[in-house]
């Protein structure tokens, strides 16, 4: 499904990632963990086209996507969420999700200006489908609110709804549980399982060990820019190197 | 005069206007480096320098050196006042609001200058006569020498200030990382104020020393400001040698272009260069590329 | 339903604009209202770029001028049909902006402001210097009026209806645009360009397209201006006018189509009201820009209602949440 092949990233003289390789299997939830500064977010930024890596490649469903810019990836079914939530603050919750359907609609500037009938039909479809995704994430009661006014936890669910509206094959989540309280975190775990059940592959970077061990099928451990270990949650919990580098920390 | 002589002559006048552009450009760079603001009112400070000098000289009947000193001080005060009244009160500054506020400020200053001094063009007397001096095949005006000397002094003392004084070092720290500078106890807002003061000083000096050559009026600030910005862009918005070279290069190209190609399109040269640099090498001719982070 | 309210609002405005000249008996005021129409179109064009996509342009007067000069030269010098000239001007300027848009819109913030400013000034210098074609600083005269089916648009009243037909059409099209997927994508770029890109919005291309659209619309306004005035000179297309357009957008309201009309109307009427001050109206512009940015960044369209509700809340003695 997704293959990370020998990814190396240097910023100036600093090597942030060195020769990272792993595979993500279709329909699984893969967790990427590691202490702060391990290079997790950098890896995400490379996979999602925001950074260009120094070396190595990213293969999505057999196609090398590593040189594609971020905006070309959504239509290939790859989306992400952000650690600090990147919402469209001045837009309503519904409009945020409607933007998720951008790649699955195609009226151009002229059709939009002239309100062509096909554009009007498309707009109706975008709206109703977006409402479904709000429902899916359990926030349809907030549809007409301005996104900037949402509490942080709701913002997180909105970001996920918006990403689902893209109809992704794979979703990358950067610390989805960060800033959530216990109740919200368990709702999140529920939602991530629900996302997987629709056939979407999930990769997440996360600090909340309980969540990771609970929902992930496989875990990749990064430390200081290198891959330290890979395996099932049980294997990782028993891996002495991981315990030394990471779990031993706390 | 043959072509070589002409070119020599164009070089002299080009380098002297270039020096002016460099001074203005450094003013842009200092403010940009400490605040990430491009101060669109920078040119207006240049204009104020010339106009204040005229005011002290002709209205107050003060001697020229004193008039110049007072004009520089008055311009610095205007720059500081501008920062205090418009930029500092902004609660959530965005690049757009800063652009608009400094444009508003520049229009306002220009309008007030027009109200106070009228729309006429004024000439400032040359600092020490206007008897041309022959240098090889070209001639130089005493004012050119003043420009080179004063610009040189201003640039060197500016460099020394940033290199060796505590305040200068603190301002450089702000330029590198504002938050970190604040954390180690540097009063960032005061440094921002200082940067407006220094660039007000440099700008006014530029406006004063060029006024005897090119005359001055309420609206000279726009073009001088933009050319100064162009110099700073060529120099990669550095507060030092890059911008100086940028200014000299721009001044010379303009002067040669005006003399050899077309004087009507002289002003366009700066903007064509500006666009080319921004398109092809936005980090400036002498700067190094920076990794842009998301 | 929300959609119907939009339509009613628009129709109400159309009716007001249709009957306005019947209530005004001074020809001079109708002339002012013609200018409000042209300025509305220009402010609207800029607002699409500045208010919606969040990209500043300080060179709009250049595109306006190009429209006017292309139309003027093609008709007055080469005797081409004015409508064809208008179409040629619009197409050429749109195309030109599309090409220069790619390198220009790669720039952000202050750099973008300076680059568009530079472009505007270069165009302005060409108007002054290409004397053979443009007539130089003294201008180009003898531009014919537009005509339709034998009606020549040669009086203020006829021009009023001509200009406003175009302006209202532009407003209607713009309203459709901003309420569509393109409008959402533009606002998304403004709010978070990274997130918009991750959602598959080709931010770069879209910004360039809007820049081109904005330039093309300004060129049409320029062409209308040329055929209405029958005389054009570079002074109308300088940097100051670009700043004036930015002021209109800021005062009326960023990202508001009706705000563009309001801003254009106010800034066109202001100099008329400030006649006594002659050229000193630029002081007022400067103050307006600063004060609005500091205290009412949403412009009058958003600022006045929220200020009113705050005052009303205070009068009734209950706290009002900040907007």
Protein described:
The complex is a heterotrimer of chains A (250), B (294) and C (323). With 250 residues, chain A is α/β, with parallel strands linked by helices. In chain A, 36% of the residues lie in helices and 24% in strands. Chain A has one domain (2-249): Rossmann fold (3-Layer(aba) Sandwich). Chain A has helices at residues 40-47, 93-100, 109-113, 117-136, 152-165, 182-197, 209-215, 233-238, 240-245; strands spanning 2-11, 14-24, 29-33, 55-60, 63-64, 78-81, 170-174, 201-205, 218-223, 226-231. In chain A, the strands form two sheets. Chain A has a six-stranded mixed sheet with strand order 6-7-8-3-9-10, with helices on both faces. Chain A has a four-stranded antiparallel sheet with strand order 2-1-4-5, covered by helices on one side. In chain A, a hairpin with a 2-residue loop joins strand 9 and strand 10. In chain A, helix 2 (93-100) crosses helix 4 and helix 4 crosses helix 5 (152-165). The longest helix of chain A is centred in the middle third of the chain and has 20 residues, at 117-136. Chain A is globular. The model of chain A has no long low-confidence stretch (mean pLDDT 91). Chain B has 294 residues and is mainly α. Chain B has one domain (3-130, 139-280): ABC transporter involved in vitamin B12 uptake, BtuC, CATH 1.10.3470. Chain B is 73% helix and 2% strand. In chain B, a hairpin with a 2-residue loop joins strand 1 (133-135) and strand 2 (138-140). Chain B is globular and about 60 Å long. The termini of chain B are far apart. Chain C has 323 residues and is mainly alpha-helical. Chain C has a single domain (27-315), classed as ABC transporter involved in vitamin B12 uptake, BtuC (Orthogonal Bundle), CATH 1.10.3470. Helix content of chain C is 76%, strand content 2%. Chain C is built from 14 helices and four strands. Chain C has helices spanning 2-23, 27-52, 60-77, 82-104, 109-129, 131-134, 156-178, 181-191, 193-198, 203-229, 239-252, 257-273, 281-295, 299-315, and strands at 140-141, 147-148, 151-152, 231-232. In chain C, the strands form two sheets. A two-stranded antiparallel ribbon of chain C has the order 1-4. Chain C has a two-stranded antiparallel ribbon with strand order 2-3. In chain C, a hairpin with a 2-residue loop joins strand 2 and strand 3. In chain C, helix 2 (27-52) crosses helix 11 and helix 11 (239-252) crosses helix 12 (257-273). Chain C is globular and about 65 Å long. Chains B and C meet through helix 4, helix 9 and helix 11 of B and helix 5, helix 11 and helix 13 of C.
């Amino acid at each position: 499904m997704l293959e990370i092949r020998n990814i190396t990233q240097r910023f100036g003289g600093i090597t942030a990632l060195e020769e990272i390789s792993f595979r993500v299997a279709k329909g699984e939830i893969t967790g990427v963990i590691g202490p702060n500064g391990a290079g997790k977010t950098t890896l995400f930024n490379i996979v999602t086209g925001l950074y260009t890596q120094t070396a190595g490649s990213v293969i999505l469903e057999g196609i090398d996507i590593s040189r594609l810019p971020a905006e070309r990836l959504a239509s290939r079914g790859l989306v992400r969420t952000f650690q600090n939530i990147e919402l469209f603050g001045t837009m309503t919750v519904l409009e945020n999700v409607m933007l998720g359907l951008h790649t699955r609609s195609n009226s151009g500037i002229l059709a939009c200006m002239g309100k062509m009938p096909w554009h009007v039909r498309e707009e109706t479809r975008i709206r109703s489908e977006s409402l479904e995704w709000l429902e899916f994430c359990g926030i349809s009661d907030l549809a007409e609110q301005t996104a900037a006014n949402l509490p942080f936890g709701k913002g997180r669910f909105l970001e996920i709804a918006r990403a689902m509206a893209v109809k992704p094959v794979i979703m990358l989540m950067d610390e989805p549980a960060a800033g959530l309280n216990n109740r919200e975190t368990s709702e999140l775990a529920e939602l991530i399982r629900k996302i997987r059940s629709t056939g979407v592959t999930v990769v997440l970077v996360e600090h909340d060990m309980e969540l990771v061990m609970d929902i992930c099928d496989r875990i990749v451990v990064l430390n200081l820019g290198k891959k330290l270990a890979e395996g099932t949650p049980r294997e990782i919990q028993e891996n002495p190197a991981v315990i030394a580098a990471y779990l031993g920390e706390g | 005069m043959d072509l070589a002589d002409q070119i020599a002559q164009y070089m002299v006048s080009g380098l002297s206007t270039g020096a002016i552009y460099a001074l203005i450009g450094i003013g842009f760079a200092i403010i940009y480096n400490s605040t990430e603001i491009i101060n669109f009112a920078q040119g207006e400070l240049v204009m104020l320098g010339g106009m204040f000098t005229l005011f002290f000289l002709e209205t107050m009947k003060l001697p020229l050196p004193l008039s110049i000193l007072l004009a520089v001080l008055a311009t610095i005060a205007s720059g500081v006042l501008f920062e205090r009244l418009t930029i500092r009160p902004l609660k959530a500054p965005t690049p757009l609001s800063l652009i608009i506020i400094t444009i508003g400020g520049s229009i306002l200053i220009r309008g007030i200058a027009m109200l106070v001094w009228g729309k006429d063009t004024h000439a400032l007397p040359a600092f020490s006569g206007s008897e041309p001096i022959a240098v090889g095949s070209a001639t130089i005006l005493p004012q050119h020498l003043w420009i080179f000397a004063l610009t040189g002094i201003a640039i060197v003392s500016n460099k020394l200030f940033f290199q060796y004084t505590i305040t200068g070092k603190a301002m450089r720290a702000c330029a590198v990382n504002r938050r970190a500078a604040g954390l180690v106890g540097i009063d960032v807002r005061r440094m921002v104020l200082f940067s407006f003061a220094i660039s007000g000083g440099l700008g006014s000096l530029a406006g004063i020393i060029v006024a005897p050559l090119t005359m001055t009026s309420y609206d000279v600030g726009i073009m001088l400001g933009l050319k100064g910005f162009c110099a700073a862009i060529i120099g990669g918005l550095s507060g030092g040698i890059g911008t100086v070279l940028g200014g000299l290069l721009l001044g010379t190209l303009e002067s040669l272009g005006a003399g050899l190609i077309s004087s009507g399109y002289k002003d366009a040269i700066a903007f064509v260069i500006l666009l080319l640099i921004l398109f092809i090498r936005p980090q400036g001719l002498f700067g190094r590329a920076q990794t842009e982070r998301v | 339903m929300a959609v119907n309210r939009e339509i009613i609002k628009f129709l109400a405005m159309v009716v007001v604009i249709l009957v306005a000249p019947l209530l005004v008996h001074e020809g001079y005021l109708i002339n002012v209202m013609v200018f409000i129409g042209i300025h509305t179109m220009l402010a609207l064009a800029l607002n699409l770029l500045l208010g919606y996509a969040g990209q500043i342009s300080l060179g709009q007067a250049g595109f306006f001028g190009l429209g006017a000069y292309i139309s003027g030269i093609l008709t007055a010098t080469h005797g081409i049909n004015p409508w064809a000239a208008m179409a040629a001007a619009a197409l050429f300027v749109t195309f030109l902006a599309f090409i220069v848009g790619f390198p220009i819109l790669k720039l952000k913030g202050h750099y973008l402001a300076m680059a568009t400013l530079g472009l505007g000034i270069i165009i302005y210098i060409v108007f002054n210097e290409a004397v053979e074609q443009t007539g130089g600083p003294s201008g180009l005269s003898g531009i014919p009026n537009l005509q339709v089916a034998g009606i020549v648009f040669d009086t203020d009243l006829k021009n009023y209806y001509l200009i406003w037909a175009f302006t209202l059409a532009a407003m209607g099209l713009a309203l459709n645009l901003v309420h569509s997927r393109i409008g959402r994508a533009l606002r998304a770029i403004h709010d978070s360009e990274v997130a918009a890109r991750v959602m598959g919005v080709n931010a770069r291309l879209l910004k360039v397209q809007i820049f081109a659209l904005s330039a093309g619309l300004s060129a049409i306004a320029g062409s209308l201006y040329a055929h209405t005035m029958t005389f054009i000179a570079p002074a109308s297309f300088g940097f100051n006018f670009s700043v004036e357009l930015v002021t209109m957008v800021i005062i009326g309201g960023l990202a508001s189509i009706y705000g563009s009309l309001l801003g254009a109307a106010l800034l066109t009427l202001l100099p008329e009201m400030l006649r006594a001050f002659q050229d000193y109206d630029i002081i007022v512009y400067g103050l307006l820009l600063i004060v609005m940015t500091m205290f009412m960044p949403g412009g009058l369209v958003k600022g006045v209602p929220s200020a009113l509700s705050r005052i009303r809340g205070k009068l009734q003695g209950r706290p009002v949440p900040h907007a």
